[in-house]
Amino acid sequence: QVRLVESGGGLVQPGGSLRLSCTTSRRLFEISTMGWYRQVPGNEREVVADISTGGTTYYVDSVKGRFTISRDNAKNTVYLQMNSLKLEDTGVYYCKAGGRWSVGAWGQGTQITVSS
User: What is the pLDDT of residues 27-67, one digit of tens each?
Assistant: First the structure.
């Protein structure tokens, strides 16, 4: 059974920072684009950022310049460094192994709340 284990969510004030981590098996990690997605109640899950096996990154416009996605191949881990957090960044963040248009494999989700 494929497992993606996420960590790093929580409550933060506007302007603050958080770092999310997601670890999976080496076998899956080595062949997968890894991504972070966000879902808020009433909305569809949307891609926030992803990174290919070759290191090519994609960011949704709303997070460009504030979020950085990276992958550590030695640790089978993908990170999402989130700076200058805004109220609208609030949501459940999911890690995905697989490209944006694939079914992929998903983590359990971690809540991020940006609130003063």
Answer: 999 999 999 999 999 999 999 999 999 999 999 999 999 99
pLDDT of residue 1: 73
Tell me the residue type at 18.
L
Rounded Cα–Cα distance for residues 47 and 66 (Å): 15
Partners of 47 in beta bridges: 37
Which bin fits 63, alpha (ψ -120 to 50), beta or left (φ > 0)? alpha
Largest CA distance in the chain: 41
- Nearest by Cα to 34 from 16, 15, 18, 47: 47
| Average pLDDT value over all residues in the chain | 96
Identity of the amino acid at 114: V
Beta strand pairing call for 10-12 and 110-114: parallel
Token pair belonging to 104? 């992929």
> Which two tokens mark 60?
């949704």
- Cα–Cα separations (whole angstroms), residue 62 to 66, 82, 113: 9, 12, 17
The average pLDDT across 16-24 equals 98
